[in-house]
Amino acid sequence: MERQGVLVVSMQLNKIGCIFRETPNADVGIDGQIEYVVDGNASGRLAAAQIKSGVSYLHDKGSHWAFYPEQKHKMYWECFPLPVYLFLHDPDSNLTYYTDARYYLNIPERDRNYSYIPVPKSQRLDTISGEEFMASTGPISSNLLEYPEIIKTMAREHSGNGLFPLTYLDLFCNGLTNLCRHIYFGMSLASELAEIYLGIDESEFGLGVGPDEHKFLHNYTRFLISQNLATINYSDYLIDWFERRIQPEYLTPLTSRGRGLVEYMRQLEAQLLGDYDEISVACERPMRMSFALGSDMFRIFKIRNFGKVLLRPDMEI
Questions:
Q1: In the structure, what pLDDT confidence band is assigned to residue 275 with cuts at 50, 70 and 90?
Q2: Is 260 strand, coil or helix?
Q3: What's the burial of 100, exposed, middle or buried (CB within 10 Å: 0-12/13-18/19+)?
Q4: Which of 209, 224, 211 is nearest to 171 (CA)?
Q5: Distance CA 255, CA 263 (A)
Q6: pTM greater than 0.85 (yes/no)
Q7: Radius of gyration over alpha carbons of the chain, in Å?
């Protein structure tokens, strides 16, 4: 029964343009690895697979199936470095349902005592494209731009709102940190930058942020991933974007391609602006935790007191 499920899933993945590499000794909760193929080329977008076949795994909950994992598998999948797709195969109907188990297990607001992983009946492997299926690994582009076109695209992609005057180039250059090996992104960076530019332009209006501006920021992150400029955990990113309804925040390494773009920017800056010094358009900004709120000092001392109470000889926890 299990072999039947593995073979069917392998064939269905092949039909939607994915390579399935079965793990020979799959006794730790992972049956294989999935890679999406773009225009005949392996993309490097990877996910892990756990396949369960048989009616004994199909616990009907109306709109979804309930899968009851062992505790060791829950912990393993939650910490796995790749998205973990859980497949439930029904041998009677020959239909296969799936969900990203790692995504679900990492949602902070879910009930930690929830005893099962829901597998939506709407998520069938025979009704979806490879790009949609691999969505949690990040957007994939078969058109990797050369550095000159990347920079032009970054400068051209604007929010479209005069009260939120930002481009991809603004976000990228001002997010560089850690000797330009990492890049930071968050709503605080975007809003502070927009306010600075509004001040420079002497705008009489305040900052304007709505759904379109949030979508612009979301597309900026997708651009970084699709152009292979930064190593972003997109599955984790989507938890904030979809489940928590907030603009995600991350500090992540640039890829070698991203670091190459930074160096190209510096060379182009010297050529176009006729100067080059320590304050470059592509130089790092230091990162630090801010203690600017009135409650920060109170909290600092409360944390210290909390630690002292924990270490009291008479304290049992």
A1: low
A2: helix
A3: buried
A4: 224
A5: 13
A6: yes
A7: 24
